[in-house]
């Protein structure tokens, strides 16, 4: 297939070249963004490649094609290394998903690689890809259909109703579904199971018990394979808190198989390591099921996956990152960080190192700890360094692990039991909940990680405004030691349908004091993430008329404004601040009056009253 035929097949409208011959020069491309190709040339192929034959791209996917007349005329190892060079250059040039292809021009053979790291060798070649596809088809392979998430969320609603009718307690449902999902993803056989005899005891075993025992065996095998330092405790939680729970044990074989069949048909196909639409569905399970939890439990603020993704990109998680989430909950930040770090890897050894040695989590609550363990296993391990404990007991452990990235969403209204005892002993006797609104968690962690660390943390708006004595105290402590790099005002109902808190994301550089850095802080008014509430489903992402995600474009804009420190009326502003000031874009931002309509005024008033009501009685 000649070059013209290749271009026509994939889509000429997506072809991007920057030389007269239509080839793509990575030397020119990298130079355009202030990088030198020499910094990325490893020199192990004998040639300093820089000219890619054909390149296609849109806003989120790049397809790299290197052509050879006949593969049989070339050294396979050399041309694979050449393509690996181009993949490395592309990663340095953009943060897009990559499909890498070797194609014959005097024949029809092709070799295709895609996935997380795009490692160009025989082991990682996609054997089933024997014919070129269109750009749109490759995009669907890498990202899935935009509506996949919505379909899965619809399925979760149906599944929740099924679990309710089968008598499974609402607090148990998300963990039970996650455990079933993990077992199914790893070969659980559940159909046509018969009653049998226990070979160890000689007693009869019902079919449903056989299935549950098979799930336990799969979990134990996965935890053993992962090398988890907490295998026994994790198994105990997953068994005692989930599989041995009376609600699960009382399920009939038909009820159990109906649940497993539904998950197998409607959920499992979307949990695909090569499909980012399926990467973090377990977190969606948690937030979706959480809306059925009683109001008294809704202080838990489980971070939506797209916000995890944004925060991970803000701090630049890569293959060198050693990431800690000290309040890891369901593991959403850890899964996202592991995925992003592995995306940056160039070999299987690097990927394994990320999973086994560079992802760290702490969770106090047993149920959430069990869910984070399941979540990490679903996404290919990384759970060996997730521990159950109070973060305030793990200071030395944190210090020993040389953390350089922190992603966290601490509890905002924690009682004394969950807080640092050195802090609570000075509380007023009338105080029942953390007066720092989670800030003391952040400041404590900052003291125990490397000074080279970047922190991205979610805190309630009260922590940014800083009216109370305790909040002011911790704002001052942070700026006395660290630099406030950015604050993003996030959507008002970002945690819906869970906690009602209005959140901001703060980014700290721990390498120097704020006053010594002597630079302006970036404030982003990032209220509109192009998600909308759907009855019974929570917040779901919106699409354009072609079905393309509006969030993808929004995230790209948010990151561009922050990374390039652009000031745009109505979206962003730069300002020097101290601990005495408000840390909110709203306090400093210019309004783009040309874009305002009467509906915007009405929406602002509604949002304000909504905030007042959610904030509690004293302001209502």
Features:
620 residues; alpha/beta; four-stranded mixed β-sheet
Q: How would you characterize this protein structure?
A:
The protein is an alpha/beta fold and 620 residues long. Helices cover 41% and strands 14% of the residues. It is built from 23 helices and 19 strands. The chain has a 9-stranded mixed beta sheet with strand order 11-10-9-12-13-15-14-16-19, sandwiched between helices. Strands 3-4-5-6 form a 4-stranded mixed beta sheet, sandwiched between helices. A two-stranded antiparallel sheet has the order 1-2. Helix 18 (439-448) runs parallel beside helix 20. The radius of gyration is 26 Å and the shape is globular. Residues 273-278 and 293-298 have low confidence and may be disordered.
In short:
With 620 residues, this protein is α/β, with parallel strands linked by helices. β17 and β18 (538-541) form a beta hairpin.
